[in-house]
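Just scan my protein:

——
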Amino acid sequence: MTVVPHKRSRIRAVAMLSCATTPMLLATAAAAQTAEPPAGPTSPAPAGQQSPPSLPAAPVTTDDTTVDPAASSQAPTQDAAPDIIVTGSYLNVRQEDRASPVLAIDAKDFNRTGVQSLAEITRFIPQNVGSAGGIQDLAKGGGADSRDTRSANLRGLGSGATLVLLNGRRVVPADGFVNLNSLTPEIAIERIETVLDGASSTYGADAVAGVFNVITNTRFNGLKLSAQATHIDDSPSANVQAMIGFGNDRFHSVTSAAYRYQDRLQNGDRAITNFFNPSSGAGANPGSYILYSRPRTVAGGDVIINGNNYSQLYDRFRNAAGTVSVVDPNCGSTETQSRYVPAANSPGFGLGSCQFSFQAQNPIRPEAKSYLVHNDTTYEIAPGHTLFAEFGFYHQDSKRFSVPSYAQNRIGARPPIVPASNPYNPFGVDVAFVGRAIGSAGFPDYQYRLIQDKVDQRQFVLGGRGQIGGGWRYTANATYSRADVQSTDRDTDLTLFQAALNGFGGPNCNYRYSGPGAGAVAGQGNCLYYSTFAKDTAGLDPSLIFNLQSNVVSNAKIEYAIGEAVVNGPLLSINGRSLDVAVGVQYRKEKLSNTYSDLLTSGFAGFLGPNRNTAFEREVKSVFAEANYEVVDGLNINAAGRYEDYGAFNTVAPKISANWRIIPQIAVRVSASKAFQAPSIQNSAAVLINTNVVNIIDPNDRTTVFRSVQTYGNPNLQPQKADVFNIGTTLLPVPGLRLSVDYWKYKYKNQIQLQNGQAVINADPNGPNVIRDATGSAQTIIVQSYNAPSGTGTSGIDVAASYTFDIGSAQVSLRDNLSYLATYDVDTGTVVYDGVGYRNNFQTSPLTAAAAPRWRNLASIDASVDAVFASATWRYVSGVKDDYLAVVGTPVTDRIGAWSAIDVQAGLQFGPDRRFDVIVGMINAFDKTPPAAKYTGYLSTLGDPFGRQTYIRLGAKF
């Protein structure tokens, strides 16, 4: 497939390149007016800009302490040095001497973004292509949309390809990925460093696309408070935080805490998502009915409903088996807000489908509240030897308000039967019901189905560091990280549902699974009839919800136990220059268990399941080494490698890189590495590990229905590997100007892909992996992961520029960060296609494929005068072709437009020592609506439907 650039895309490209080069042009003009010497030390890279590898950094300034990064050079002389974490290396080599490009965001930059959760910072990283979780993307799933959760996803290679660290250490992936919101209160963040390069040689598995490392402030003294209220129409949110730090020369402790709340937002609250999204068939309500015999009245006459003769309809259209399927007689009425679509041979009623829309009742985001506590403590037990401890606890309660009931997934040869004895049955004979237990109008006092999630996550770290002698240092630590996730959903218990259809409904009816108990009489006393017919819903007894919705509970426990030790120092001197090395070992034990309530394991739930209780564990043993040598002044060569043994397989990840400061104003860097991801712990087991429900198009009859997709593990899976390459340069031609350009490339080999259910049924509609019932209807598709012949391949160019200058007493900064996607090859398992400029939601697109806009850009201007500052940011993502459920290789004409938003804010510090501050601002100040997309309304990887967000943040420090 070849993508032909749209003319408007070319215009946008020119505009953005112009934006990226604007600082250079301004700097040139400034240089013509001044003869100042070349730039000296420069400050750390601001938000969204690559850290310069060419010059020594100026002191990194925190709230209370100024730390010279030079203290972290090869021969540190004080214990404060290990606090300077260099992401991507085990050597104390200054970041500006590293070859891997890094995006650095410090606390000051973070505070100027207006975000109130760590996850929201990803929108200021153009190299992050969408996220799992967070804003719901119905077409791709992508995580726990019933929770407030968000992943990193660098280069669009999937959340599992970005390693997320807290202070350089792994965190348990509670959601199948690390939830960025669970790491630490934002008030405690000193800086965030994102390595845009393969880092498996340093950190092992999962660091294919790069590393997202959150570094906390361990040296804070005093008390700091912050509160932010954000107004979003129909979905306000708030965040309250505090941090306290105290200690002396030997002991220091910093504790931070945060409370965050967000209100729910439903599709019905936004025009872009509040549209008629038709469903029919097993997902319908008003539903459809299978007539097994000729309808008749009590007197034996024809059944006439709304003037239509259903007895004659049966006589004329019954099939060889003596059955005919008809839609609810009330389909198409105003009361049901449904649409009757007649079949080609329909007489104008009965035959066809009933389309309706639950769209408005689905959520954009859930209601959620969370608590987060974090502590860092250090104690010098002897000169040059320090113990350190870290503790974190995260708790979240969330509520997802969704459609009243799930679609009917498992139908079988005999779906639920509405007996002739049911007084609501107008056909006078037994009929089978196919549809949703609760219709689009809801049920009395039950307008939404509530999913409730509880997450408890904790992390403990205990370790020591110090000097060995001769410039050698050691660090050793043990980490225990655990998450407990409980999800309570609601589904239809088919046994109880059938009982209500038979007249034994209600919580007080003496009905057992073996049948009615003593005194239970159908439709009498405490025993109630339920009607599936749309005209009756509003008048039914509310207590019948007992038969329609039952709680189903799933519990997941994920544990990491990690021990690690590293020593580093000068190995020897060559030509008067030190060869510095680091060697280390790591042991990691992973555990995962899932348990489900009886209804989910029995298979009697109408939509979810069947699931199986599972428990897995594995051990990972690693050794790694790194060496750095300055060949000549300004030319650093770095080599690293890591060996990991998983028992069933092992892998080696090497990396070689170089950084050359040709002159103080020009640096060139290059790196080449091999990175890898191991199969997940459950994916390597030969058991049923997951049951999901997706829309499937059955090739036999072209119907689109919800069907179970059962995922089995594959013990033959091998690690997926990737070749990673980066070459770039940083230029500092005049004081205040920084320009950085990088070309990057990732190419997977043996990429782990999950079989696409649609691809499985397309390949062999009646094969062993498609389970059909006695009528031939597909009920279940069996899939498993596999190593694709090749895998995703992607490349592009990043351009980052900044220019800082003074106008009188004001300091002004211009910044731009542009990411251009040159290639994004997607491997479906049978064909590889070019996905640049596409949504990548073809029928057979793998779940790892992300929307691939060609351009992503972030541009900003900051201005400050004394204690006042103001800033504006422009966020831009180019559009993509909307290939939703299209066949790979067919022309795609639909398009999802570009997304562009402007954020503005201003702040003021005041009071004694400027200890108080207030910041006000707007995100998406012009209230831009995201471009429309098929099925979902919008595409979450391009834009969001929140609209304008206004906020105020108050802070104080004592």
Notes: Residues 1-83, 134-143 have pLDDT under 50 and may be disordered.
